[in-house]
Amino acid sequence: MRFRAKIVDLACLNHFSRVINTIAKLAKTCTLRLTVSKLYFILADKVANGGVSLWCELCQGNFFDEFQMEGVAAEHNEIYLELVPENLSRALKTAQSAKAVKIKLTNKHCPCLRVAVELPSISSSSRIVTHDIPVGVIPRRLWNDFREPSVPDFDVSIYLPVLKTMKSVVERMKNLSNSIVIEANLSGEMNLKIETDLVSVTTHFKDLGNPPWASEDGCQSSAQDRDLESMAEARIDIKKLQQLLAGQQVNPTKALCNIVSKRIVHFILLHEDVSLQYFIPALA
Amino acid sequence: CMLHCFLFLLVFGRAIHAIARISDEFWFDPVEKGLALRSVNSSRSAYAYVFFSSMFFQHYCWTAVSQPCQKEKQLSLPCKLIIKSVLPVFRCVNVLERNVEKCSIYTNINDHHITFQLLCKHGVVKTYNLTFQECDSLQAVFAKHMCPNILKVHSRLLADIMIHFPTSQEEVTLSVTPMKVCFKSYTEEDTDFSKTMLTEIQLNPDEFDYFQVGVDSEVTFCLKELRGLLAFSEATSVPVSIHFDISGKPIAFSIEDMVLEASFILATLSDVEKETASQQPPGFSQRQESNGAAVPSKKPQWNGNTRNTASAKPASPLAKQEIRSIPRAMKEDTMGTEGTAMTEAEARAVLEGAAAETHHQKVRRLQWLSYSKYCIFQFHSLFFGAVSCKEKDAISHTFHSLATASDTEEDFGNVPSSQV
User: Fold this and answer.
1) Could you report the predicted ipTM of this complex, rounded to two decimals?
2) Is A76 found in the same domain as A202?
């Protein structure tokens, strides 16, 4: 099992750091899956996470100048590591002016991701800052726990409003309530609602647009029969929603959510080279 | 003794903040040539000394007053202040510079008061009347010039290095050979590597303004205590000199220019010589020098970051230590000798005061500190006041008590207005 990669371009490094920062805000511990062409940050929906799950996919070619990987076996050319994304975020934070960043899987005292940052210095040789981030190697028999989640059979799919606006609305609502109701319909309307003993607040968004989903085997007919005005709703933990919105450092190219009434809300945030899916289950 | 001075607030404020990282109280010691501030932490593993020469101040006036109970050698009586009382004066140092036009410091030994007076914009005068404890002097004995390893570097570089360590990182190891310099997170035998992120920074000797390595060494010191000095030296833009030796011997970070000098002397980790010699990691081999600074073996543990919790009373065993007669030289680092033997009673005092980490069997202590007995005159009280009036001519003023404020500021509302 080997892994080594190198980033030389500063813009790529910044972009990669931003992705890591976003992941760090969403999960304390997560799984990093490495394949020949992609990296995945995965959080499986365990009770400990409050049932949320995360699937973030990056094309390694868009970030790394060098990327070499040898998985656990020839037929299973992948590596699954458990790590604390905050550590990776910290290691990259002070690398903003780096000449190069190398990441390597090592096993000195224990398995580690070694991040070596080469910084410019006044002397002839560069300054090298090395961070050893402990990781856990996930054995192959557990890989099934980290399969890509399928898109749920949603009732309504709708584009999200401008994230900055949505974030400030949700942040203010967070002070008033622990849970928030997201409801939306196929006419491009979405409401964010909170209700407590003292106060209820609703923010209305309209003209958001509904993304077209190509039906695979014609089973989309149920959604097409759906009344355009009828709202699908789910009550979710407001903190989880706020974390998702707060973690976005760059505006995504596309942002949408799929609502399964009273069951789950599935958020999809797409950037040019990164896709992020986040599932928040509905509260009982 | 009267002391009047106006000063560069940012630098002075940063000095106070730097000292605050060492301990809750500090020695305020005006002498003829300038003002010395000193502090030592409760486990005596860190010592800070900042000296502002009289030229640092716009105006510096020091008068010797003979006191009947004084030892002949001392012309002035140093006093001890609680940092928490002084910090609010220099709380937002950056803001201070904009709003404050003048800062004056007065002492009046007879009344046991030190007064900090800030003349601010718009005619606002803030006066802080602080009681001090009388005490004997605190002196460090450390022979910087005898250190085989000396590095000199701009404070900016040092800050750029330390930024890679998390703020929670307590201890850092500096490792040098003539070919390279490395700062790394401190690890020990029982560090849980699977849970800890380790950081290491490798530098080329070229990066240093001055680089002298007489003996390969690896010293571990407390980063938290150092950070104050880093901020302070950045404010002064004076390069930082690092003097050190092998592990176990203190490491000194100092800055010096025409009007001020500062030294932060930190103890470094050394293994206690003991049964488990075979388990010692190579970097920490104990090399005791037989110069009289012998450390009784099996002496435990130390928690270098314990703040002075019992502020009012001295630990009684300390009082029994022999008092060395030390000439009151201005430059403290020119003392010749290296160490003071710690008595058994003292060792116990360190034990009692500090949280023991018995399973580590590692010791970090400044063996050379001489610390005389001190006596306390009275409990301190803190008095804030704001007087709105036109700017007074501060020089001619002796403060005994504070005039009643006609419009007190709100945040001083709940401070008891005790009289002098």
Assistant:
1) 0.83
2) no
